[in-house]
């Protein structure tokens, strides 16, 4: 069945691992970490793979290199295969597994870290990374993330999702600014209300429909947690999700804005079903995470 694969030399786990490392780093030089010996080794091993498959696997891009479409496909197949072997080895050695989770900075701090505490008895080790929706989707396909939290339902196949919680946006204005509610609402509508906006985390929420895409914010930050910290200084208003409120809400007014209050957003736990086939333990982790996160968001 596999006679042709083993009819000539050039294919090995070590060579496939080198291809994955070069693809992840973006160049042979970066993958080698400046070590000329390792750089030569990577070049030789990838050339041997190219000779074996009789196809180009890497190509130049500026001063670096990138995987060709064929290189990306071989890397995907190799990662799938090596992950299966790695999971099998851990099972044989009864080693604890580590799962990689990607999400926004706000979701990690507000929901993910609390449910991963030892007191929750999650039964495995986890690492978290701040990753946007687009990168989460790509890395789930690549199997370089085990699970991700995204804020959109539409996701490419074969990836799957499950809702873990829904939320809305709210406009908070410090009373210290001296705006009556009607004035604050009018100034928000004509985009003269002084605001801090977390553009990175708002970017996936269709800003144009929320009248926030071109809002001339006084201060722009990365995420909702940072925006809330700025709001606490009581010098700027802030658009925040309803699961984040000021520590002293009596010093602020929550202004009802139809464009903000109408849309309902959601967080989805996303995964690649191929991961579940490679790692049977991942199914239990997925279900446990989904349940813990849903309960946390409902609090």
Account of the protein in words:
- With 299 residues, this protein is of the alpha/beta class.
- It has three domains: 3-86, Orthogonal Bundle (Arc Repressor Mutant, subunit A), CATH 1.10.10; 97-166 and 266-298, Periplasmic binding protein-like II (D-Maltodextrin-Binding Protein, domain 2), CATH 3.40.190; 169-263, Periplasmic binding protein-like II (D-Maltodextrin-Binding Protein, domain 2, 3-Layer(aba) Sandwich), CATH 3.40.190.
- It has helices spanning 13-25, 28-32, 36-53, 69-93, 105-115, 133-142, 181-189, 199-202, 224-231, 258-261, 273-278, 281-298, and strands at residues 58-61, 64-67, 98-103, 125-130, 147-150, 160-167, 169-174, 195-198, 219-221, 237-241, 252-255, 265-271.
- A five-stranded mixed beta sheet has the order 4-3-5-12-6, with helices on both faces. It has a five-stranded mixed beta sheet with strand order 9-8-10-7-11, sandwiched between helices. Strands 1-2 form a two-stranded antiparallel ribbon.
- The longest helix is centred in the first third of the chain and has 25 residues, at 69-93.
